Prior knowledge:
It is built from 17 helices and 9 strands. By secondary structure, it is an alpha+beta fold. Among the domains are: 2-76 and 97-169, NADH Oxidase (3-Layer(aba) Sandwich), CATH 3.40.109; 268-366, Leucine-rich Repeat Variant (Alpha Horseshoe). Helix 1 packs antiparallel against helix 4 (103-119) and helix 15 (319-332) runs parallel beside helix 17 (351-365).
Amino acid sequence: MDQLWETLQLVAAEHGLVGLGVGNAEPFLEVRDEMRRRKDTGLSGRLKFTYTDPGVATDVRASYAWAERLVVGASTYLPAAGDPGPPRPGTGRVARFATEDHYQELRAGMDAVAETLVAGGGRAEVLIDDNRLVDRAAAVRSGVGWWGKNTMVLAPKYGPWLLLGTAVTDVELETTPAMARDCGNCTACVPACPTGALDQPGVLDATRCISYWAQMPGIIPQELRIPWGDRVYGCDDCLEACPPGRRWMEEAISEAPGRVNLAELLTATDQELLDSYGHFYIPRRNPAFLRRNALVALGNSGGPEAVALAVRYMQDRDPVLRAHAAWALGRLGGKNAHRALAMALSAEANTDVRGEIENATLTLQA
Ligand code: B12
């Protein structure tokens, strides 16, 4: 077995993985209770994914009865994802985990680990960001990292800048010990969250998390829109504040990957958006939700074309986009914004959008 474990570590390293561990396949009962508590208390909001069935997500044998071990791997998306740098008018920010499909390297590495297990006569199935397994719990159990107060799994050198995946197997490898590490007195991530989603360390209130809303259909709550800043997808604030990952983050300097041109995004076709951002989780594969995010970023980021772009969306057939365009005009200000809101109000039939236009007009008058 030791030979096989050594081979697996070699294979993982050859594929650029920065962590590998083995845990048993027993159910994650504490995580199951915590997930149910978050559902019952509303902390998980309208999340589906693993929250659809916490019983399945926390017991891999519900999916693979033959499971004996979880071989968990980690990849890092830095320095490839670079650093989006400070806000710049007319541009938006994509969180580092999504500047491209950074799961590809992890997927290739975990597939190679699974093939090695199968070549040795075992069974193996790879689960990555899948509803059938809570990746973080598997990573903590197998010693790949420890659980941070930002709820991220953290590892030495890389901190939170990791993606996680598992090869479920019936090969009874020796398990690797959990990491004897925790965050100690550090709470840097808590005040770093722009919307107070981590007010209870280790517990994320998803309904206050910008990353949650960037993936959720519907109207973005008013109170989150200014803290939203120039974000278009995801949020890295509780990761950027995390000391264990600071040096690794600071080595990633290229600005390009995470900064996007909002005018290009807001004038692109559906197909162009799905081609460029298809690796994002976009509800119902409907790019309108990406445009919605970009309209909030536009309101906060401004730029020479901002008012004209927002005015254009006051004619959009989608009330969600008209609502966020109205908000952006209220935020951007100026006489053209004022005139556009007045004209829109006279023609707007949708009550919610009328409310947004009236609020934006009040903001302008304030
Ligand atoms: C649902 C989900 C989300 C949701 C909710 C996240 C959440 N924290 O609940 C939203 C959309 C908000 C989200 C956001 C992000 N996500 Co996400 N997400 C998932 C998903 C699909 C399921 C997670 C889940 O079921 N969690 C269950 C809850 C209960 O666990 P938990 O929040 O981690 O809480 C545990 C700890 O906090 C701990 N705990 C409890 N009390 C205490 C107290 C203390 C003091 C401590 C230290 C710990 C602790 O116990 C809890 C479990 O019982 C996983 C993929 C998967 N299949 O697992 C990816 C995953 C967790 N996401 C990931 C990433 C990268 C992100 C983002 C960084 C992306 C971005 N930049 O925007 C953000 C980070 C936000 C954050 N701080 O969590 C990675 C995380 C990798 C890592 N290093 O941890 C994963 C593992 C995907 C992957 N395969 O790599 N995500």
